[in-house]
Amino acid sequence: MNEAAAITLSDKVGFLSRPESHARPTAAVDVKETHTSFVFLTDDRVYKLKKPVHFPFLDFRSLEARAHVCREEVRLNRVLAGDIYLGTVPLMLDADGSLSLGGAGLVVDWLVEMVRLPEADLLDHRLKAGRVSRPEIDALADKMARFYAARIPARSSGTPYLAHLDDESAQNTGHLHALHDHLDGRFTDALVETAQARLDRCRGEIEDRIAAGLIVEGHGDLRPEHVCLLSPPVVIDCLEFSADMRFIDPYDEMNYLGLECTMLGADWIAPVLLGTLERALGHPPSADLMTAYGLFRALLRARLAIDHLLDAHPRTPEKWPRQARAYLDVAARLSGLQQRLD
């Protein structure tokens, strides 16, 4: 076994969790875990360490793969977040077997380094506190509209977008059906059949939008927790590991952000986002397609929430069924079906 392989993920996480491991002074290190990363928050920096995991849609098992995806995360996110993304930093193993961030020795992993944004100004926090203004959402909508307008049309990549909708819709149905015992009657065959029928009915329109060059490389994971309402606003954490999964109809992506804001009690935001997008880009989808997009996203979010129960050791297991049920209620309202609410 080589020296790099002898350093375990637990070793790396333990080292990065200690304040004294960081060159910039910090009172503490807050550690967060996702399916694909460990995130270390110091007083003024954020470091993201990719896990050596393998899923159908990504493979981070090799050091080279993790180095590449770290570089891609910085490159892609600088478009909407600028120098918030400072670059990549090697995790080193020196001659005496000690780990360090940067310096001399053997590279055992790579991290993304970011400026830490004020948590209180993240859009989800602002919405929960009731501190979001119309001018702030206008600024965000303008920024995203300029972003989409500058993207190169992706006619050749439109087909993966449609394939993505089909594949994820099938997974939504399968996973929600398998875990329906946790969903308190919210999941029904009629709900997913209605969503699929909507998507099927709109297939020709989606294909026309692909042919017209209206599908572009977007953010890929545009949610309130990835928006910071500074001046100007900053958008972080785009989906870095799959170009195909970033190709999207801008109206689908902005509608998704609007749906998430509605979930947090701000249903006025979606019309602002979509109105700005229409003025900037034109070519709005039909009302039927917008409903199909909303249904797809609500069911996808329900599935991603309930899928946490498939983890070997789910974190906060009581949270995910509740969240999934809330998204299923949104899907039911969009579909016109009557579902029992909490």
From TrEMBL:
Q: Which InterPro entries match?
A: Cell-binding_unc_protein, Kinase-like_dom_sf
Q: What is the protein name for this chain? A: Aminoglycoside phosphotransferase domain-containing protein
Write down the species: Polymorphum gilvum (strain LMG 25793 / CGMCC 1.9160 / SL003B-26A1)
